[in-house]
Design brief:
mainly alpha
């Protein structure tokens, strides 16, 4: 469980009906069953994750498939700029957009270095995608909707299964998925401070990869 929420009990009502509704409204603007279903749909379709984050990682993934092995940072930066210019033709890409992606690549590299130092990524490996940031939150959203009585358990279960199927397409293992989730959370909240937003989820990752009763160790990825 995390923050008192049982990972394997969709009917668990968390901190109670009133608190669950207040939390959904505060953090997500969800006030009704319709709002909840819309938020759940958006998460399952990875519509909250920044397209820029996913673009940068997809460029590296393409290079890794093309050349094999670790992708040199300078090659990654050059390829990202080249793709952006090509996609924008006949328009010109604003310099601010190019600089933004270059800065993002730097942030990703620094986060991954910290992940390796802390045991969240093996040496020579990188994060393939941050879609896990939405897919993982979709599971929580499904549970919160039941706790807030915006939906029932059957509806939540269907959403969780759909999220799992999407995650299996994007990732190869629980660890792969987890690293994507951690990076997404850090890019969203942490601002390279390596503060609570990072430390809390990093600790959860370590528990999930070491506790004999962890679902990551007792349930196959596929």
């Amino acid at each position: 469980m995390k923050n008192g929420e049982l990972w394997n009990a969709l009917a668990f009502h968390g901190s109670g009906f009133v608190d669950e509704r207040n939390s959904l409204e505060k953090w997500w603007g969800v006030k009704s069953p319709e709002d909840w279903r819309e938020a759940l749909h958006s998460l399952l379709n990875a519509e909250y994750v920044s397209r820029v984050w996913e673009f940068a990682l997809s460029v590296r993934q393409s290079l890794a498939r093309q050349y094999g092995g670790t992708v040199d940072t300078s090659l990654w930066r050059e390829a990202a700029a080249r793709v952006m210019r090509r996609n924008a033709e006949p328009e010109t890409v604003p310099e601010s957009a190019l600089n933004g992606v270059q800065q993002l690549i730097g942030r990703i590299i620094r986060y991954e270095a910290r992940f390796r130092a802390d045991g969240l990524l093996p040496e020579g490996r990188h994060v393939r995608s941050v879609l896990a940031w939405d897919y993982g939150r979709a599971v929580s959203m499904a549970r919160w909707g039941v706790a807030a009585r915006f939906g029932d358990v059957a509806e939540a279960e269907a959403a969780v299964l759909r999220g799992g199927q999407a995650a299996q397409v994007a990732y190869r293992s629980w660890e792969d998925f987890g690293a994507g989730f951690v990076l997404g959370r850090c890019l969203h909240f942490d601002e390279e401070e390596f503060g609570p937003w990072y430390r809390e989820v990093a600790e959860s990752y370590k528990v999930l990869t070491s506790d004999p009763e962890s679902p990551w160790l007792t349930l196959p990825w596929r």
